[in-house]
Amino acid sequence: MSSHQYFRLANLLTFTRLLLTVPFFFFFRAKMMLPSAVCFGLAAITDLLDGKIARKEGITEFGSFMDSIVDKVLVATALISFCLFQHELLVNNVRLIPIWMVVVILGREFVVTTVRIFVVAKNGDVISANKWGKYKTATQLTIITISLVLLIFFIDTEFVIQQYGPIFFMMLLPVVLTVASGIEFLYGNRKVFSAKT
Predict the structure, then answer these.
(1) Cα separation of 195 and 103, whole Å?
(2) Angle of the 99-123 helix axis to the 61-84 helix axis, nearest 10
């Protein structure tokens, strides 16, 4: 792929999404929820736009691979931020979301990314996200955005700041879709593991 292909509009939006994870993380850690939510919301919008633009420009293997990686970085940053969130209403090491949720979601992403890298190294082919992977990502971004909006308005109330609050229960949906899409991905690409090297 020629060098100018890296700077297509869709790819620039993907890189912008990656850069937005940095201010998002620091704003969140500082409990500045409005700018944090704005950063995440803008990042989610770039995910929507770069997909549409890529289909018009022509989808490339580099763009498809980077889009998937950056989505995972953005979601991982948000989940880790939720897990590390400190508040006087949260006592005895209680978290907005439990560690097991983060481990399950990030574990799935690690396995899927490892398989994709293996396939690229072996065949030079990029495995594109299937519909379940897209549903998973869309649900993750939506639930995280809603959670951030709740934190803007209810950051000092027990309605949101509790162990089994609305954020925990909303996050169950992306957890289920994450596991389901991971199983579907591995089953759909089972030939990768049985093929001779």
Answers:
(1) 29
(2) 160
